[in-house]
Queue: 2 jobs
Job 1
Amino acid sequence: MPGSSFGNALRLTTFGESHGPAMGAVIDGMPAGLAVDVGRLAAELERRRPGRLDACTSRDEADDAEILSGVFEGRTLGTPIAVIVRNRDQRPADYDSMIHQFRPGHADETTLLKHGFRDHRGGGRASGRETVARVIGGYFAGLLLPGVEVVAQIDTLGPFRSSREGELGIYGLRGCDSIKVAAYLETLKDSADSIGAELSCRIQNPPAGLGEPVFDKLKSDFGRALLSIGAVTAYGYGLGAGFASASGKDVTAERGNFGGIEGGISNGQSIHLQCTVRAPSTVGDKAKQGRHDPCIAPRVIPVIEAMVKLVLADHLLRQRALASFQGAP
Amino acid sequence: MPGSSFGNALRLTTFGESHGPAMGAVIDGMPAGLAVDVGRLAAELERRRPGRLDACTSRDEADDAEILSGVFEGRTLGTPIAVIVRNRDQRPADYDSMIHQFRPGHADETTLLKHGFRDHRGGGRASGRETVARVIGGYFAGLLLPGVEVVAQIDTLGPFRSSREGELGIYGLRGCDSIKVAAYLETLKDSADSIGAELSCRIQNPPAGLGEPVFDKLKSDFGRALLSIGAVTAYGYGLGAGFASASGKDVTAERGNFGGIEGGISNGQSIHLQCTVRAPSTVGDKAKQGRHDPCIAPRVIPVIEAMVKLVLADHLLRQRALASFQGAP
Amino acid sequence: MPGSSFGNALRLTTFGESHGPAMGAVIDGMPAGLAVDVGRLAAELERRRPGRLDACTSRDEADDAEILSGVFEGRTLGTPIAVIVRNRDQRPADYDSMIHQFRPGHADETTLLKHGFRDHRGGGRASGRETVARVIGGYFAGLLLPGVEVVAQIDTLGPFRSSREGELGIYGLRGCDSIKVAAYLETLKDSADSIGAELSCRIQNPPAGLGEPVFDKLKSDFGRALLSIGAVTAYGYGLGAGFASASGKDVTAERGNFGGIEGGISNGQSIHLQCTVRAPSTVGDKAKQGRHDPCIAPRVIPVIEAMVKLVLADHLLRQRALASFQGAP
Amino acid sequence: MPGSSFGNALRLTTFGESHGPAMGAVIDGMPAGLAVDVGRLAAELERRRPGRLDACTSRDEADDAEILSGVFEGRTLGTPIAVIVRNRDQRPADYDSMIHQFRPGHADETTLLKHGFRDHRGGGRASGRETVARVIGGYFAGLLLPGVEVVAQIDTLGPFRSSREGELGIYGLRGCDSIKVAAYLETLKDSADSIGAELSCRIQNPPAGLGEPVFDKLKSDFGRALLSIGAVTAYGYGLGAGFASASGKDVTAERGNFGGIEGGISNGQSIHLQCTVRAPSTVGDKAKQGRHDPCIAPRVIPVIEAMVKLVLADHLLRQRALASFQGAP
């Protein structure tokens, strides 16, 4: 009933407030014997770090992951894996003025409505900092997915549009000039404003047969996973919202329109997901007081990939159990 | 781990294949003593019936609900409520040709990929018929939501657009001429084609404080609920995909942009959700052999409302448990 | 949160009140393609039937199982399997006097405490009739356990003690004279009294590696399973309560003392479980009005076997998922 | 599907191997605003400490709890509470000889059977050290149970029997001479042997109406909770195993025989539970190499109380949700 766990066969439980001592993740259900590469885990966390991008928040979070359990001599033990990241550089004074300020679109007021009590120093669990734990979970989920490639990118950000071809730039846009993007974000920040974006995620070589109708379809579990990220406001797969105006004859002419998922089950082809993130709520004077991103999209990329991997690994374990009985008498 | 149950505190479990003996729903977790109106339940099922709309599938499903448990002398017992609806008029011969035909976008092939075995007579669990059980579940969920109004409608269907004002027509469009809509659907059916649509759902007077961050946010549970409906391909709340191009200053200027959900928790204001349904996959010669809808949207309306009520009732029970401790020492 | 479902990977959901229209079971998570033998299912239900034993309750329940979903052409579809058994011969008049009578040890009063409303006609969900659904679930769980033998028996009943050797008699005692047991039960019934019993269950050829520490140990899941049966008041495995007075040197001298479970995980050896059932609460004048068993033990045997199979099948699916990754890089 | 979480509405997730960096607990689902007393938490952990009793294991575990999340200014936030306890004094060299030694009754061999890989340095998750996290969970569960008193004691230990009256001694026996108990345990330790025990737990002033039939009955959830403790091999409630030979007339003569639970639901009277713990497996030469308890019972007392509180608090939240609708139209 509580909401801090995700997944069935592979279950991520997260904890930590942005201004508390530490963020953490517990990953339960991992098979034993899988090789853990702490350098790769650190690299994933580095991709999520705010300080990485000039125009983004300058909080210098070190994000050193400490593995507390579940790994022995570089391999998973089959026991729950717990990893924590200490919160540093908290500067609570920055947030003193927020005690009675409720940011629209933010959890400030609704947390109080819900619990009658809250940590006024910041977003608490609603902070983007919470996604550290998701990235940790996604790293371990990825150990179950060798050969599966999960790559998210920004499709649109303000005036920028990813081209079909081209390298992924540091801001996660394909074929766009990073210097121009940086300048755009800098201008936004200077004007204490912010902007939304569209992102997509492509999964190459996914296992076929994943998804448990009728409620745990792969498309709906991906949706739940991405929509559980604070800033995500819309989601689609395949043609997504584009299906609204497409005729059945057009749609069925090409299987790729279904984005690798038919009847809620993966068909083995590439899976294509999209989502929208909204502009951060902290604007105007408040944006100048704290340290805030003018656009969340670049930091969300590794979080999307992590959530997608968690869904895939969970469903892979579920399907493996069923498949082990295929051909039984 | 299996996928036929939905909800935590209020849990709907469904069963039934479209060409098997019966469809069914088990609703567990209902409080006792709530008045059950079988006439109202029948009316909800009637709204979902295909035969109701001229241009839609002409299968004459009687959909008489039989309550097998959980209700005594017109009131809920607090025990699991089981309701079944027999499948009639199955005409399996219609489907004999489908044994080796896999409809694109449909579960035909992926079910075989997943299970190595399937019922070739029809969609099985992937059939729209499965939604009968959801409507039953939604009726009972609604008993926990007196005063909460959940109304879905079609926003766009082919060339038609709901106006802001006006009555909801029989096709679920607001302020559109039903005769023209019927004619459009008839033409589609004659040409063995089909079309997608956009729908929205407005919840008036929702309880505040619903939603369990970080993974069971209200926005993500609504998303999962709607995306678990076979035809739904995209989902959004508040401005939805429109958030992509909106600036933070514009977005935060009006709280209503967030569609009644902030930080994943309801704020007590009206909640606004949107989704896209794709065109049915059965087109061309196959559409002429069986009996199929050219557009699924009108039938999906009560299903959307049912899923929304299930999410609300589930989260209301969860929040009630927490709220009962507010003010504790 | 509600309590009518059992199991994780293989999940049984049951419904039905003893005096309502039907009892039912939904089994979700079954792999596809397994052969279903309806004759064998009927035989399992027959073993549980009260009318079978002279001295036991004479309610003539036909217990014809109707499969509503999940089976096609004699094989499982991988979709939820729903089975119902209609309640016949309900004679509610027998129970009119019970409206204000609360039987000690029974759910009569606590159901009212819990729900503020109850079906006064009988035990509702607390009736032994509820176990019909468990036997159905156990039959399907058994399909995942070819070669595994699950046999329960009565160890003690009143003055009777099963011998080590000998056939299982119709009352479930090994090497006891059925005529003498019948006479004993008849005498009890005549005096409107009832008696408890001890039972045990032996699992031959269980899979090794089942059990998920630290909370879903095999020993604790068996315990929960058996203790969820209405009449069961105590449970043990291996030496069970006999461990209290045994020294470590004695205990570890023979691995068999641990009953096939070490560290909460099956070691592949035979598993040995025990439980106690209490005397039925309906005694004195009330026992003469209705039709009641003087000892529940004979009818509980197939229920114990069913619950044990459900636990084994659930844990087998869970372990299969993990094992599929053994040897991965 | 994984086994490291316990509870539905209040969910404890634990992690940590005995020879890894830390043990930890995450408690999710706690209402907000409850006062946290870190001194009381420390006192609970102290009761579980091995070093406390002369005759018990002399590992000097400091067990300083660090709260990482979920508590702010001395009150719960309604967010997941994470607490860790570092493992000190690990002396892995002591255990080097254990690489190829499988202790009977222990998880050594079955962990390898299950996972194909294990941490040979000690019990890993099967170690008694794992119970630190349970005691932490129990402390927080207790915050939801003001006025409810949960007291466990040893009923029998070797030649000792608790008397009905008298104080609880330091070994958890009532009315026994602690010096004599210490001498007995010392003798056992000197002979490298160990012994089992019987314990009981009494709950005064429990809330009525707790328990969710038919599978989550209070009696079966208590059973699962206690049996999930490594050393527990048998469990009963009320008369427990004594029900086997009791007649219905005798049993129903006094409501207290049912131990406060009727029909699987608490009736508001005192609840009475019993369980058996087996002798520790480490005996003979191995017992002399490491540092081991000759009897686990004294250390299990706070663990039993913790598990009982977790079950009560979980069911209280579940019942509160239902009860909030009593009297609804």
Note: Chain A touches chain D through 49 residues (CB under 8 Å).
Job 2
Amino acid sequence: MKNINVAYIGYGERGRALLELVLEQVDAIGAVCDIYEDRAEACAKAVEESRGVRPAVYTDYKAAIADESVNVVMILTAWESHIPIALEAMRAGKAVALEVGGAYSVEDCWKLVRTQESTGVPFMFLENCCFGRRELMIKNMVELGLFGRIVHCSGGYHHDLREEIAFGVENRHYRLRNYLSRNCENYPTHELGPIARILGINKGNRMVSLTSTASCAAGMHEYILANKSDDEALINAEFAQGDVVTTVIKCARGETITLTLDTTLPRFYSRGFTVRGTKGMYEEATDSVFLDRQEDRAYDWSWVKNKVGNADDYAREYEHPVWKQFLEDGVRGGHGGMDYLELKAFFDALRADAPMPIDVYDAASWMAITALSKISIANGSAPVEIPDFTSGRWEE
Amino acid sequence: MKNINVAYIGYGERGRALLELVLEQVDAIGAVCDIYEDRAEACAKAVEESRGVRPAVYTDYKAAIADESVNVVMILTAWESHIPIALEAMRAGKAVALEVGGAYSVEDCWKLVRTQESTGVPFMFLENCCFGRRELMIKNMVELGLFGRIVHCSGGYHHDLREEIAFGVENRHYRLRNYLSRNCENYPTHELGPIARILGINKGNRMVSLTSTASCAAGMHEYILANKSDDEALINAEFAQGDVVTTVIKCARGETITLTLDTTLPRFYSRGFTVRGTKGMYEEATDSVFLDRQEDRAYDWSWVKNKVGNADDYAREYEHPVWKQFLEDGVRGGHGGMDYLELKAFFDALRADAPMPIDVYDAASWMAITALSKISIANGSAPVEIPDFTSGRWEE
């Protein structure tokens, strides 16, 4: 692809966060779209201010996709619309970059796969955490064999979102309605993406089954009582979404993955990224690397405390090449640079007609965790099979 | 009970670690026992050196229990013999202190409960971690309401035991045979005990179901290849026990508990004790307390790093009374003082004819997790009901 002209769909928080980085890397943003007119207009204004050219403005994504000037569709909308918009775009023969979220049904994930396969358009899943500095450094160390055979990984989306959820009506945010109506691992990909790449999921390995267990939902109600007690509707609302959802995934080669959704209780932010191998480990909680036989076994907290943050020492030798370069050139863009790197990876692959760094099989299998976890929770944590969206090609 | 005379059964590592503390607190150790004659003899010698009186020496636990001089039986043996010895002791009308371990069947746990109920003898489960300094401080903070409603707890037995297991024949250690033949959460109580007490398990709450998922078993084989390559039997052995077992428990009041068994991969020691409530949290990984609205929400590692170890600050105000006194008097005994406190709690209750701090219902429900996790793993992580060993009395 030579002349990248984007239909930019969705101008909520995420759309606003990425716009500048996208404008830097594309030839044009020919169309902008949001179901809210004011947002679509704000997006058009921002594009015009940057480029001097006013894009076409839409509130209907179908019209934006149909716009003949555009050949790439970026989807930065509410979770519910991700797959429908992606399907429409692929059917129109446009390349797709899809923001993260979970799927509402396994069938939706199959549609994503089938439509990409039948249309052959480039498709990338914008999982920025796959480009995180530590995530890539640890992937590098794993590939160098430093951790031995990887046996278990865990991660979580530990992010106190109570304010965002409670003010979801005012902010026109999709999380509120989702937390009221659904109980599932609703946002698995930030931690699962980097883990899946380390475990070779869909590339020699695959996820075969999961169980999900949800705690009660207590965090939002207490938050609303304390911070929004004048909101009668919310004071009396029952939230379906459990505060903490624990999902345990089994992989074809015997590895296990534990995911934790944890967004409605007080705490500090973490993705809890942890990688355990027969020769070593990394854990984000203490940002520490532990290599077998290079250090004494440690039994007391004072020893552990000395290890806190020692991953920085390993960075000197094992920083991922992408990040080495990035640090030299100067890190920029949101989320500590991950956003810039994911967009660059997408547009570079698009221009080079190269395979997409995070493809439709990754998207389908990661997003399906949400739909499958909902089934497991509804069935008392019963194990649920995870479909093989590659139809057997993962073994190749 | 006025004259405490102990039959001390089992003189392996644990028996050796506790003997001196027991000798301090009892009137006599009238009988010692180990299936290995040399160990029984060593125990007798140690008792004689301390007290000037040689105890009766047995290799058959039934004979030791039948010894008319003793009224208390302490069980510090291999996991497999815990419940049979406890049953024999209770049937003989002797008080029982039982070291920790998991059960081999749910029926064994029921036998423990029925036999204690029918004999009425004092029974205590020696879960020393219930007396841990941080565990008790956090329990204190929970009871003061500082963490709000507790929604989720997690913990693990993160302990690199590869050497102990690999040299199990030489050391006559029971872990080796267990790791060769069983795949389960084989040692849940160190983390579950303190969590169960915080959640009021068997005292207003109960555990209702669990799922367990085991990773492949790769750690032991690699360890043996590297460290015991002349051991033909072990080089060719297949270990049944997965390296990491994740168990998720659901409680009657909606709380969830996640347990991790993690004993055959390289890492530093931790019990991963974590308590999450609607108003605050504690996590052992960073030894940090986080209280809602008392601190800014934190998004970056530099902030988190500043919190590492801040639980010490809270100790000034919230140290558990038992530990305040212990620190004043001078902490002593193994495992950072926990061993001393658990034994003191047992002998104090025995002398005062008071309820046992950790009773047979705690023992049965905590030990049953092992047997139930085995069933879940064997059935592809299927959810398994956890029996109510109190027969409904947990609600009182």
Note: The domain at 5-127 of chain A is CATH 3.40.50.720 (Rossmann fold).
